[in-house]
Design goal:
By secondary structure, the protein is of the alpha+beta class. 44% of the residues lie in helices and 13% in strands. The chain has 14 helices and 12 strands. The chain has a 5-stranded mixed sheet with strand order 4-3-12-7-8. Strand 1 and strand 2 form a beta hairpin. Helix 1 runs antiparallel to helix 3 and helix 3 crosses helix 11. It is elongated, with a radius of gyration of 27 Å. The relative contact order is 0.11. Bound molecules: ligand MTE and molybdenum atom. The site of molybdenum atom (MO) has 6 residues, from loops.
Length: 458
């Protein structure tokens, strides 16, 4: 007697969504682990060597590229499946009801060979009902926690609802491990159930085992073949074209309704004087004389040459000061609440009449066509550089910062002046600014050119 019962006429719809889900979820889990364990900074601390051997280490950009493409397929497929069972009424077969707990217990005893009592004749027994309901809830949980950590500023309500950024991230991760457990039990049950049930789920109850195996192998083989083919296509800025195009597509989708004025809030300020975490020293290696530091501002227009301007720290210190408390987020998998102080970027633009083609002060209503579309930043030696869309720069929390946690920036945190832009990942928060460029096209971007998303907005 088997615990795996499915009706003879399992709907084609259920079969398709089930089998599309398999390779999709596999890619999501694999790329998710690449992201999570890219730098092995998170618990469990798996030795770097093992992660490297598994191909999960130092592959952050790649992992993100796959994850942010296949998330669409995962969500769409899940939506189609849930719509189907909702409309067809077959959800009733899955939702736990009646004596499902007692039944589930009997199934466990039965499967372990402890009890010989026959199982109830319904389509799914109590254990299956629980498992299939839970797996759907897990899918929804992955989407919600995924969204919360993908756009934690824009969807801050969702992030808070799920217990905050770090918690949502942890849940997202544990769900991933949950799928792996489910998978093992599920395959075990299928093997126990025998060929008939397997046939029913692959190619219809009438077909023979060889047909089912062939159908399955050809199907999964072509899916993974197509994925491998995409991974080896020509690259654009360090990423095979399909993945680069998807990141660009995602940027379009999100910027439709992202609000650059949305701020990160409700964090308790850390202790004054606490040293901020330090990560990344590209462009910080050459000696610097903080007293004579100047930054150059360039505006690139076709029609006329605008002379560069040069700005010193005393100039910056004369501008109005803004203090914010934000959660700084690095894609490598850590975040830290920090208090940052400096000059609001919009105050800086207003004071120097920068950012507009006409040189007239902008009202930053975003409707002004006069604004440049992109802002580039470089370290004095030109070794680190980022490109940021003007809209994100206009957030009231975008600062040219000179203090963190109440003390002047340390050299490693970007003295004398760095960018703090909480609606972007850490990568865009360039330290030790040497030049700012206003332009109407995306500017060079250090990590963007290495396969990361140019936009990378939170
Ligand atoms: N000049 C420069 N700025 C930089 C980096 C860098 O390597 N060089 N790393 C970036 C990354 S990836 C992060 S997470 C943050 C880290 O800032 P912190 O060192 O103050 O924590 O700085 C960003 N700005
Ligand atoms: Mo980072």
């Amino acid at each position: 007697m088997s615990t795996f019962r499915i009706s003879k006429n399992h709907s084609l719809w259920v079969r398709w969504t089930h089998w599309i889900n398999f390779p999709t979820l596999t890619i999501m889990i694999w790329s998710g682990l690449m992201i999570y364990w890219a730098n092995a900074v998170y618990w469990p601390q798996i030795p770097r060597k093992i992660l490297e051997d598994l191909g999960l280490s130092y592959r952050l950009a790649e992992g993100m590229a796959y994850h942010f493409m296949f998330m669409w397929l995962f969500a769409l497929n899940g939506f189609l499946y849930v719509s189907y069972i909702a409309i067809s009424g077959s959800w009733r077969e899955i939702i736990p009801s009646g004596h499902f707990l007692k039944e589930a217990w009997n199934v466990v005893l039965h499967d372990l060979g402890i009890s010989k009592k026959p199982l109830p004749p319904s389509k799914y027994n109590g254990a299956q009902k629980i498992a299939y309901t839970v797996i759907n809830v897990m899918g929804l949980g992955s989407i919600l926690t995924g969204l919360a950590i993908y756009k934690p500023i824009q969807l801050s309500w969702l992030k808070s609802l799920l217990g905050g950024y770090e918690t949502a991230r942890a849940i997202h991760y544990w769900l991933t491990l949950g799928y792996l457990v489910f998978f093992v039990v599920h395959v075990g049950q299928v093997i126990k159930a025998g060929w008939n049930k397997f046939n029913t789920m692959v190619s219809g109850s009438q077909s023979r085992a060889v047909t089912s195996v062939a159908v399955l192998l050809i199907g999964l083989g072509s899916a993974f073949g197509a994925f491998t083919w995409m991974r080896h296509m020509d690259e654009s800025k360090g990423l095979p074209l399909p993945f680069r195009r998807t990141l660009e597509f995602n940027e379009k989708v999100w910027t439709w309704f992202l609000d650059p004025m949305k701020t990160d809030g409700n964090h308790a300020a850390p202790k004054r004087g606490r040293r901020a975490r330090f990560n990344g020293d590209i462009g910080l290696k050459s000696p610097i004389d903080l007293k004579s530091w100047k930054m150059t501002v360039t505006s690139k227009v076709e029609e006329r040459a605008i002379p560069d301007i040069s700005i010193t720290m005393p100039d910056i210190m004369k501008l109005p000061r803004t203090d914010i408390v934000i959660e700084f987020k690095c894609i490598e998998g850590w975040s830290e609440v920090m208090a940052a102080s400096g000059v609001k970027f919009t105050d800086f633009l207003a004071h120097y009449h920068l950012g507009t083609h006409s040189g007239k002060p902008a009202d930053f209503s975003l409707r002004r066509q006069d604004l440049y579309s992109d802002v580039g930043f470089e370290t004095p030696d030109g070794d680190y550089y980022v490109s940021i869309d003007m809209k994100s720069m206009l957030s009231p929390q975008t600062l040219l910062a000179y203090e963190i946690n109440g003390i002047p920036l340390s050299l490693e945190n970007g003295a004398p002046l760095r960018l703090i832009i909480p609606n972007k990942y850490g990568v865009k928060n360039i330290k030790r600014i040497g030049r700012i460029t206003f332009a109407d096209s995306p500017q060079p971007d250090y990590w963007g050119e290495e396969g990361y998303d140019w936009f990378i907005g939170l």
